[in-house]
Amino acid sequence: xxxxxxxxxxxxxxxxxxxxxxxxxRQIAGYGAWNRECAVxxxxxxxxxxxVRTSIVAKxxxxxxxxxxxxxxxxxxxxxxTFAKKQGIFAQGDAADAVFYIQKGKVKLTVVxxxxxxxxxxxxxxxxFFGEGALAGQALRMGSAWAMTDCEIQRIDKKAMMNxxxxxxxxxxxxxxxxxxxNARYEEDLVDQLFNSSEKxxxxxxxxxxxxxxxxxxEIVVPKISQESLAEMVxxxxxxxxxxxNRFRKLGFVDYSGGPEGGLQxxxxxxxxxxxx
Length: 277
Description:
The chain is α+β, with helices and mostly antiparallel strands. The protein has 3 domains: 2-64, no CATH class; 68-167, Jelly Rolls (Sandwich), CATH 2.60.120.10; 196-275, Winged helix-like DNA-binding domain superfamily/Winged helix DNA-binding domain (Arc Repressor Mutant, subunit A, Orthogonal Bundle). The protein contains 10 helices and 10 strands. The chain has a 4-stranded antiparallel sheet with strand order 1-8-3-6. A 4-stranded antiparallel sheet has the order 2-7-4-5. A hairpin with a 5-residue loop joins strand 4 (107-112) and strand 5. Helix 1 (2-11) crosses helix 2 (33-43) and helix 5 packs across helix 6. The longest helix is centred in the middle third of the chain and has 27 residues, at 169-195. The protein starts with a helix and ends with a helix.
């Protein structure tokens, strides 16, 4: 296991420090017998073995940690709530005094400008947090949250959330990793908006909603997602979304037979639109 782990890192062109009596190339491009010999040599080093063992234990710990189970034990400051489809969870301008954790259903985050223009910031699913701006000193909500489906959501008061983060390091690591991933997603969205066509942006949004590139089997995007919502997320007009969706359907990239509720099914072949120059 240790050898395979290090060999993989060699294949990904990691830079290793030279050691006395060892000749270690700094940029290893392939993954053949030569790289395996390199990995074997490094596997003999105790500090590399320690690094590998620590990484494996950390990954195993993260897999085993269950945020929902832990949040159920934090005591006061948490409330289990249910929301019907299209019901508001909080509104722009409300007091930012809690963080929310999705146990079931899907949630839509939106923001409205002073001129009344609405934009969709994202669609969240099970095991996602939202409303975390309360922890960063926001006094008022900068956007709104709506239930796209029937939802079960846990509301955690700001003080209780802060105590939970301080009390359990595994939960803190999970939450920080989630925030970093969200931040990276926002940066990618900005680059996408600046440099890609509306067709590519739509294809990327659909793939993200279907969880392509993440662990697990791609799922139906959301039941009956409207073209208006897609247009808000992509930053274009409904007519352009309709035009591209019809094109995707004719090419077999998407179909509307994703279940009894008429969900949208996204196929991996849609990746060709994003990757095409």
